[in-house]
């Protein structure tokens, strides 16, 4: 048996889910959701991949603020869906923001970002030599 839900009911369901998830990961005021990411180190660069399905590239903002990579924007709800009755609503829409702490050994002046098939890939080069150095004391 299927039950119809309005857009408002879907939004309310998202808000309830986010409220309870706030105890685990935290939610920033005014932010509807946070994209899932993978972050790895291949030795010469840090690679961050964020899932942003259905989000137009022009709706995505990427910044470096205080040692964090900040990803924000908006996933729009299609205009023809604003009055629709839903059987299920699991896809995210609305404003999003994700602040990703960066390691100390990255060069934030050397960042490349590409967006393809709903995945944002950000590559941040590591600094040349960050290995510990022994300093002789005179």
TrEMBL record:
Cross-referenced InterPro entries: A-crystallin/Hsp20_dom, HSP20-like_chaperone, Small_HSP
Top-rank taxon, per record: Eukaryota
Keywords of this entry: Stress response
SHSP domain: residues covered: 28-138
Pfam families: HSP20
Coiled coil (UniProt feature): none
UniProt cross-references to PROSITE patterns, sorted A to Z: SHSP
PANTHER family: HEAT-SHOCK PROTEIN 20 FAMILY MEMBER
Family recorded in the similarity comment: Belongs to the small heat shock protein (HSP20) family.
Name of this protein: SHSP domain-containing protein
Organism phylogeny: Eukaryota, Fungi, Fungi incertae sedis, Zoopagomycota, Entomophthoromycotina
């Amino acid at each position: 048996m299927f039950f119809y839900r309005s857009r408002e009911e879907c939004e309310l369901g998202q808000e309830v889910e986010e409220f309870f998830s706030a105890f685990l990961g935290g939610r920033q005021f005014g932010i509807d959701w946070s994209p899932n990411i993978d972050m790895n180190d291949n030795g010469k660069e840090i690679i961050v991949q964020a899932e942003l399905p259905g989000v137009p590239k022009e709706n995505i903002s990427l910044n470096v603020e205080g040692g964090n990579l900040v990803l924000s924007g908006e996933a729009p709800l299609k205009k023809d869906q604003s009055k629709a009755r839903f059987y299920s609503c699991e896809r995210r829409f609305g404003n999003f923001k994700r602040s990703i702490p960066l390691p100390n050994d990255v060069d934030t002046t050397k960042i490349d970002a590409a967006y393809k098939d709903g995945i944002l890939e950000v590559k941040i080069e590591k600094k040349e030599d960050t290995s510990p150095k022994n300093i002789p004391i005179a």
